[in-house]
Write a structure and sequence with these properties.
metal-binding; binds guanosine-5'-triphosphate; Rossmann fold; nucleotide-binding; 20 helices; GTP binding; 7-stranded mixed sheet
């Protein structure tokens, strides 16, 4: 029948059908990974459907919530911005999570030490060579360092225990468990291209783990300090405390520094770096306090999209108003991660470098999600056919000299620029507030001051001065220009230079954004029938 023939031929050209077809020459490992991602996408979709149904019912009862989507490539700082929001507007919940973040800080510490131990192992396995003057070509691991390495080996077990607590592998074979299997392999057995970073799925209630361990009742008011059994000899904190002096000796060892230098491993610039405050984080009763920003600096990669509800209040001429906010952390979910602290491959940046396929797929999915949230409202409050919510887009500008782990030909800044172009040019997002955060300004400053030249990666930077002010203002103008040229209709360019781990400065920015969005929300509401 003609219709059948037509449909078949359309199907074979349908980009969605083509996109879903398995790639040619797919290996079994790739197939497993793809199926996992597809199942996860379906779970997300089902969860959104369920959420939409609930929201519809809820929204009939009260005012519309303000929705903000955090977007950006992996390690751009989305979760850190979310933590800042929680710290400001939901401090009680934030404090209750301190025990969980204590475990992440401990995990970050042992991970950094593990990286160093791996570097030493590699140096030990190399045959020593000598230069022209007869001295060794590369730093030599002496007996003292080898002994130190041996004494620190119990930390590997601590890391495994922490990872198992965070991502238990049960008989359920859930996504979280299966992803954990991908990442829970001991470092020594990991193939080079496998993710070395532990990641939790947003659906995994990892923060409850410590609560569950102590058997605290859900209804009991939860004090995070009570969640720790301070007398427990198997608590990772005990081992960390016992090995604190050895860890300090390792980090300050000249040979270790030389070996890290040779491999271009800048641990101090890597996420979750705590080796500069070992006294503090290895103290027997260590708990990340309100006074220090350890929770903001702690690194735990999250996969999937998570929703966080916060009640926010804003003052104005008409008195103070209070609204529910929903903040979505659109964590980038590529199964690979960046090797810690390295990534100085000199892949040049170009304003036209193709965006990685994985990133596009992910952002497409996120935009689809956010637009579905709007679709659900269109019949209720919205009269517009475009998304009215807000996006905070994070670009870690310090990544200008780094490449994507999953696509080593793509510069990380180029990836961000392309994602930015995709977002600002999307017609469905024409009415969306898009706020750009050029993040990791502190790391950018350190890099530029250490002599790394922006022009070596971004040709068009030409002969401009290699300082933070000039560089950030140049990048800001570039991002503004892309928005101007690509937005379906004119919109205001909102941009902030941020250091998300610096609570004070970030909270000023977020307070302004909160007031701005509340104001717009009220204006929109006034225009509604
Ligand atoms: N020095 C510095 N570190 C930052 C800044 N913003 C975030 N970080 C750190 O960078 C790491 C990654 O930040 P996250 O907030 O986890 O990044 P993300 O975008 O949520 O990453 P994914 O979970 O992989 O999607 C964390 O250890 C943060 O503490 C910043 O402005 N300066």
């Amino acid at each position: 029948m003609p219709t059948k023939v037509r449909r078949r031929s359309m199907d074979s050209e349908d980009p969605f059908t083509m996109a879903l077809e398995p790639p040619d020459g797919e290996t079994e490992e790739q197939r497993q990974c793809r199926l996992l991602l597809e199942k996860e996408a379906k779970d997300i979709s089902d969860a959104i459907d369920e959420q939409l149904t609930q929201e519809k019912a809820q929204e009939k009862k009260g005012p519309r919530p303000v929705k903000v989507l955090l977007l950006g490539q992996s390690e751009s700082g989305k979760s850190t911005i979310l933590k800042n929001f929680q710290l400001m507007y939901d401090p009680k919940a934030f404090r209750a999570e301190r025990a969980s973040w204590r475990a992440i800080v401990q995990l970050n510490v042992v991970r950094s030490i593990h990286v160093i131990l791996d570097v030493i192992t590699r140096a030990q396995s190399r045959r020593p060579t000598t230069g022209e003057n007869g001295s060794p070509d590369s730093p030599v691991v002496d007996d003292e360092l080898a002994t130190l390495k041996m004494r620190l080996s119990p930390l590997i077990r601590v890391e495994e225990v922490l990872m198992q607590r965070l991502i238990p592998i049960g008989p359920d074979k859930s996504d979280a468990a299966r992803l954990a299997q991908l990442t829970n392999i001991p470092y020594s057995e990991l193939p080079r291209n496998v993710n070395r970073e532990v990641a939790v799925h947003s659906a995994n209630p990892w923060k409850d783990v410590f609560k569950r361990l102590k058997g605290i009742d859900d209804n009991e008011s939860f004090d995070s300090e009570k969640a720790i059994d301070w007398e427990d000899p198997t608590d990772p904190g005990v081992v960390l405390h016992a090995l604190a002096e050895d860890m300090k000796a390792l980090w300050s060892n000249q040979t270790v520094q030389a070996l890290l230098d040779r491999q271009n491993l800048r641990l101090q610039e890597a996420a979750g770096f705590f080796l500069d405050c070992l006294d503090d984080v290895t103290s027997l009763k260590y708990m990340p306090s309100d006074g220090v920003d350890h929770i903001l600096r702690a690194r735990l990669k999250t996969l999937g999209v998570s929703e966080h509800r916060i009640k926010m209040t804003s003052g104005g001429l008409t008195g103070s108003i209070s609204r529910d906010w929903r903040i979505y952390d659109g964590a980038y979910e590529h199964p690979e991660a960046y090797p810690p602290g390295s990534l100085t491959t000199p892949v040049r940046f170009s304003w036209r470098t193709p965006v990685s396929g994985e990133s596009l797929l992910f952002f497409g999915r996120l935009i689809a999600c956010s637009c579905r949230f709007c679709t659900s409202e269109r019949h209720g409050h919205h009269t517009s056919t475009t998304c009215k919510h807000s996006i905070i887009f994070l670009c870690p500008i310090s990544a200008f000299d780094q490449v994507l782990a999953e696509e080593p030909r793509v510069n990380r800044l180029a990836d961000s620029v392309n994602l930015w172009t995709t977002i600002v040019s999307n017609k469905l997002l024409a009415s969306t507030n898009i706020i750009l955060f050029l993040n990791k300004i502190d790391v950018m400053r350190t890099k530029l001051e250490s002599g790394i030249k922006l022009v070596d990666y971004v040709n068009s930077y030409a002969k401009r001065s290699n300082d933070l002010e000039t560089a950030s203002s140049y990048l800001r103008k570039k991002f503004a220009g892309i928005q101007r040229e690509n937005s379906p209709s004119p919109r205001v360019f909102y941009c902030h230079l941020t250091t998300a781990t610096d609570r004070k400065s970030t909270q000023i920015v977020l307070a302004n954004i909160k007031d701005q969005l509340m104001h717009q929300y009220l204006n929109d509401a006034a225009l509604l029938p």
